[in-house]
Amino acid sequence: MLFYKIDAILTENTSENESDSCRLFDLAKAGEDFFKACNEGVYIFACDKEDKRMTFGAIRSDAGSIEQAFLKYMQFAHLKLSEPSFEEITFKALITLLGNAERNDYISDEKDVLDAFDIKDISRYNRFEHTEAMLPEKVDRESLFALSKSLLPGDTLTPELERIYMGKKKANVKGHPVHYVLEAGDRDIQKSIYRTLLEALYANGRIESRRYCIVEHDSAVDDRIYGSLYRICENGALVINVDLDKEDRDPFNDTSDKQPLKALLETASKYKNRVLTVICLSCFDKREAEDFLSMAGDIPFVRLYENKVSRHKAEAYLKSKAAECGLRADKTLLSSFGDEKDGPTVTQLNSAFDGWYDKKLRSSVYPQYKTAVAVKEEKPAETKKESAHARLQRLIGLKTAKKTIDKVLNFYKAQKIFESKGISQERPSMHMVFTGNPGTAKTTVARLFAEIMKENGLLPSGEIHEVGRSDLVGRFVGHTAPLVKQAFQKAKGGVLFIDEAYSLVDGKEGLFGDEAINTIVQEMENHRDDTIVIFAGYPDKMERFLSKNPGLRSRVAFHIPFEDYSANELCEIALLIAEENGLCLSKEAGDELMPIFESARRSDDFGNGRFARNIIEKAKMALAERILTADTDSLSDEDLRTILAEDIPTDHIFSYRSNNPIGFC
User: Fold this and answer.
1) Cα-Cα-Cα-Cα dihedral of 311, 317, 320, 321, to 10°?
2) pLDDT-derived band at 433, boundaries 50, 70, 90
3) Taking the CA atoms of the chain, what radius of gyration do you get in angstroms?
4) Please, what is the Cα angle at 280 between 274 and 283, to 5 degrees?
5) Span 569-647 CATH architecture
């Protein structure tokens, strides 16, 4: 989508007999007629009129000239205007223009205009923050290449700029040949890289809009919100910051750290030919970056990352930064990045320079502050990290699972004692099956179990590698076995968690699924000393799955059931989720939860802990709507964070308004 602000001078007044209300009506009707005449690809609307100067807003979803479109609109509106100026604007600025148009009665409802283009005001979504920026209209190629070299991003950015400048976009051909993943530890470096990329792409017609959006990936944001954001960014670019090192795991969502990323990438794939996606990974673990890219499916990503640079380049870079600040680099600065053979990264160089520059300001530039020291906050006493076993015990419910895992742990500890006493015993199988309905914390318990095994010296790593059918079953003959072996290699020393394991043998590609199972059985035996495999899924389906392969069943030592949560436990979970979000429930709201959960438990697929989270999420949205319609000045902080009985949903189903024709008049 492209959004514009248009200013023009009215050169011919309306007749004296024509009332203002009639004239306003004519402009609204003209906008609607013009929209239909353009096959609903361009909509232009009046916003303000001051003396003879008029301001208009425009939305364009199709290709074409906004200047030509405005000339046609003038004919529909019977307006004679001169000196029109056109400025591409942000979505936020468009919302402001629509608000002005509605207040001045040039349109009846701004939401109807947005619905006509199937776009939503994403600023109204809770827990979702995004920013917009504009690229310059003209870009100097030489400056871009000079900046690329100064960034020292290795051998990745400059070659990509050269490919971009090899040829401009072909006329009437839509789509992006590649998208981008940036791997850098410094956000400023990431910004410099993607700004350089986007400026080059815009200069060569590869993206049509100067506007681009930046958003922080949030695991709580669903694909509906991402879909709205991508829709707004059509013809332009979307930059998404993803922090793979950030722990953001939901104890009541079995796949909380994986599914949101998959949902993001699925949305990116849907819009891959209409929106350029740039993903910035704040991650220094190449394996994690590769795991992320393995979920990308059919999105062709070009990876740009900061390599370690040679000592010669590092020194030249630091000297250049010092010169820009009016200083001369000394031995202290040039030796600040150590004597590593493979050199530092730009992020490390910037960190070293910042520390040196701070000291230089006080010691040389302003020596009167030589004895001054920065005021530091008192460092709080370090608290001992809670053990994984203690965190497991604090989880709500799961009595049988906790008891069984304690037995498993004691069994393994006993084997270690036998081994230390020289009592020779065959190494027992450590593989497991977790059975339970969705939302019963199977994945969360598996993660904690991996940590528990490491804490007790029973596994060398506390890491867990989570996979599904798409990670293990190939698309062609000979592809499946290497995928399975690769998964075991990644999980070596820890836990390999196979979710919905029965899906391996479901569907039409049964032969490939059988190959996956046979290879899994073989690898379970090969890695029995250093890797635990946990199969997870629905109880009945898991039983049928194990019965299909006796060799697989014989290698599974422990079967751990995860019962559905009781209504009381679901209430506890809901209260905990609300507390984690800084909210509380009134007594009446709490009383509303029990009958809802009792009723939901009678459904076959109510979702357990996930259902409780959905209830609180919907209550949060209802709370927000209630606050917006109230006199906020009269509300206390407690009022703003208290969910009332009226906020608790009764239908338990998200409903969305379907798109309606524009209702201007």
Assistant:
1) -120
2) very high
3) 30
4) 150
5) Orthogonal Bundle (1.10)
Both structure tokens of 502: 């029965």
**Amino acid in position 436:** G
Q: What does the alpha-carbon distance between residue 589 and residue 571 come to, in Å, rounded to a whole number?
A: 11
Q: In what order do the strands lie in the sheet with 42-50?
A: 42-50, 53-60, 2-10, 81-89
pTM: 0.53
Q: Which residues of 334-366 are buried (b: 16+ CB within 10 A; e: fewer)?
A: bebbeeeeebbbbbbbbbbbeebeeebebeeee
Cα–Cα distance measured from residue 345 to residue 342, given in angstroms and rounded to the nearest whole number: 9
Q: Can you read off the two tokens belonging to residue 302?
A: 């070009």
Dihedral sign (CA 247, 253, 255, 259): negative
DSSP H/E element including 96:
helix 91-103
Q: What is the mean pLDDT of the chain?
A: 80
CATH superfamily, domain at 130-305: P-loop containing nucleotide triphosphate hydrolases (3.40.50.300)
Q: Are 567 and 601 in contact (CB under 8 A)?
A: yes
The CA distance from 484 to 240, in Å, is 31
Distance from C-alpha of 410 to C-alpha of 321, rounded to nearest angstrom: 59
Residue 435: enclosing H or E segment and its boundaries? strand 431-436
Tell me the domain boundaries of the chain: 2-117, 130-305, 311-367, 388-562, 569-647
- Do domains 2-117 and 569-647 share one topology? The answer is no
Long-range contacts of 309-317 (CB under 8 A, 24+ apart): 309/152, 309/154, 309/343, 309/344, 309/345, 309/346, 309/349, 310/343, 311/343, 313/152, 313/343, 314/343, 314/344, 314/349, 317/150, 317/152, 317/346, 317/349
Tens of pLDDT, residues 274-317: 999 998 887 555 666 677 777 777 788 888 877 677 777 778 87
Give a three-class secondary structure readout of 568-621.
HHHHHHHHHHHHHCCCEECHHHHHHHHHHHHHHCCCCCCCCHHHHHHHHHHHHH
List beta partners, residue 48.
Answer: 55
Using CA atoms, how far residue 118 sits from 5, 111, 275, 437, in Å, is 20, 10, 16, 36
Q: Calculate what percentage of the chain has a pLDDT beyond 70.
A: 81
Distance CA 101, CA 90 (A): 17
Alpha-carbon distance 301 to 298, whole Å?
Answer: 9
- The token pair that represents 308 in the structure block: 């370690």
Range with top average pLDDT, 168-182, 341-355, 573-587: 573-587
Residue 17, Cβ neighbours under 10 Å: how many? 6
Task: Flag whether pLDDT at 663 surpasses 80.
Answer: no
- Residue 116 corresponds to which amino acid? A
CA dist 75 and 433 (Å) reads: 71
Half-sphere exposure for 405 (CA within 13 Å, toward CB): 25
CATH class, 388-562 region: alpha beta
Q: CA–CA separation, 592 vs 650, rounded Å?
A: 9
Residue 581 tokens read as 């979000």
* Of the options 3.40.1190.20, 3.30.70.3190, 3.40.50.150, 3.90.1150.200, the CATH number for the domain spanning 2-117: 3.30.70.3190
Going by C-beta distance under 8 Å and a sequence separation of 6 or more, which residues neighbour residue 151? Answer: 157, 189, 192, 193, 196, 346
